[in-house]
Amino acid sequence: MPFVLSHPLLWSAVLLLVDVLIWHIAPMQQRVARVAIRLALFLAFSSLIINAGISPLLAPAWPDDSVMQLGATAMAIVWWMYAARVLTVLIGLALMHRIGHSGRLLQDVIGALVFLIAVVAAAGYVLELPVKGLLATSGAVAIIVGLALQSTLSDVFSGIVLNTTKPYQVDDWVSIDGVEGKVVDIDWRATHLLTGQGTTAVVPNSVAAKAKIVNLSRPVNMHGVSISIQVPNHIRPRRVLDALERTLQGSSSLLLNPPPKAVLKEAGETMSEYVASGFIAELGSKGEVRNQLFDLAHRHLEAAGIVRQQDGGGEPISRARALLDEVKVFRSLSSEERDRLAQSMTAQQYSAGQVVLDLNEVPDCLFVIATGVVSVAVPDGERRIEAGRMGPSEVMGEQSIIADTPSEGCFTALTSSIIYRIDKSVARTFMQQCNEVDRALHKLQAVRQKSSHAALLARPPQVKKGGFLKWLQSR
Predict the structure, then answer these.
(1) Same domain flag for 295 and 390
(2) Residue 171 maps to which CATH number?
């Protein structure tokens, strides 16, 4: 200890160097440990200089030793800066635990004020400068600087307001003044957004504080998705709305509450605009669900006769023949083969809730959906869970066509539907004549089995009743 006290400047410098090294070497994840080490080193530094006769509240008094006088003055000033830094990190740690990453801006502003106070205190106590005159001069300078940095200060204080009111946080998807993106950082001057195009948009905090802010990430687990469709005015609106309602029912990604809806938004001179909208649980799947809704809308509108494919101007074709052009399984067939297949197809009407193909049933035909929505449920013990939904141009019963195996799911009409039936012998004949049809049916069977297994794996866990309620039920 006497050796340490005899060389206070040297050991003070060593403590400062150790503090800098540990602060930069220690991992950022161990924030509490880093702050605790810095606080311990500061206390050791304070004890060392005070025991050496250096007081941060008094001017050093070594008139006969200029080196010691200069070193003691430097150590006293460093103590004030060191104290300001320790206090700043302590405040930052408290803000991080209280309001998370958004507290960084407040930490920067408060840290600047703490360092300003430390500078004034060091000038008054250590250097014995006239603080009143310095404050008066700095006040005039602050007014001049404030006027020059008016817009920057507006960003700073707007940032404080945004961090306090929290209209958005880091990792939220927001739209600020028409700019949409993910919040990646909120600093003292601006909010940084990562847009959908992979670019970075920098929105000044003063602009964000005055602009209309739409937080797409709130509320959690409920995000709106919508599509807009234009249809000629001569089409009866009820037909279009019915097709769009079947579109919404055909997507299992949409939440049931709030219920999805289709509305006529605007009727123009020649075209009417319809909007189908609903809510999803995952914001990241918004683009995928919108693409699915557009595809379903086209299929249901076409199935309702609202949208027709343009052919070469030949004779009108039957609904069964037009449907075959949309069925992926039969796309490899020639036009003449589709004509022959269409002649053997028979249509059947199913009402909502009616079972089209039951579990473990071996059908005598291949089903092709013309209109409506069909739900597929697979067994999970004593209950059944929905594995997916099907719409126009999709087929059912491929397992029976391939190997006379029973259905692994229950296919139920969710809406009023028209479904065509292709006799098993006819379907097998085309399988034998065209290898592409055979491969397509086998591929469809594999995809269905994979989707069924995925639905079972993704099912929510059952909550078992216990405690007092279970005891009552067992009495």
Answers:
(1) no
(2) 2.30.30.60
Nearest to 301 by CA among 375, 352, 369, 239: 239
Same domain, 172 and 240: no
Is residue 186 located within the same domain as residue 252?
Answer: no
**Average pLDDT over the chain, rounded to an integer:** 82
Query: Cα(88)–Cα(95) distance, rounded to whole angstroms?
Result: 10
Q: Are residues 268 and 393 in the same domain?
A: no
Query: Per the structure block, which two tokens stand in for 194?
Result: 């990562």
Sheet holding 261-267, edge to edge: 223-232, 271-280, 261-267
In sequence order, which ranges of 319-466 are alpha helices (DSSP H)? 319-324, 335-343, 398-403, 424-433, 435-457
Residue 474 has a pLDDT of: 47
Do 128 and 41 fall within a single domain?
yes
Q: Note whether 365 and 372 are within 8 A (CB).
A: no
Residue 249 sits in the same domain as residue 186: no
Asked whether 233 and 267 are in contact (CB, 8 A), the reply is yes
Lowest mean pLDDT among 92-101, 121-130, 182-191, 320-329: 92-101
Domain containing residue 452: CATH number: 2.60.120.10
Compute, in degrees rounded to 10, the torsion defined by CA atoms 162, 167, 173, 175: -80
- Residue-wise pLDDT tens digits, 190-204: 889 998 888 999 998
Which has the closest alpha carbon to 224: 287, 288, 277, 294? 277
CB of 419 closer than 8 Å to CB of 367: yes
pLDDT of residue 85: 86
Instruction: Give the global pTM.
Output: 0.61
Parent domain of 87 = 2-148
**Tally of domains within the chain:** 4
Same domain, 144 and 206: no
Report pLDDT for 471: 40
CATH of the domain at 249: 3.30.70.100
Letter for the amino acid at 111?
A: G
Kindly state whether residues 369 and 435 are assigned to the same domain.
yes
Reduced to 3 states (helix: H, G, I; strand: E, B; else coil), residue 121 is helix
Percentage with pLDDT > 70 across the chain: 83
Cα separation values, 471 from 461, 463, 468, Å: 22, 16, 5
Greater model confidence, 421 or 107: 421
Report the pLDDT value the prediction gives residue 396, as an integer from 0 to 100: 92
Residue 283 DSSP code: G
Using alpha carbons only, give the angle 98, 101, 106 rounded to the nearest 5 degrees: 75
The single-letter DSSP state of residue 407 is P
CA 296 – CA 251 distance, rounded (Å): 8
Q: Which two tokens stand for residue 370?
A: 């013309």
Q: Does residue 2 register a pLDDT over 70?
A: no
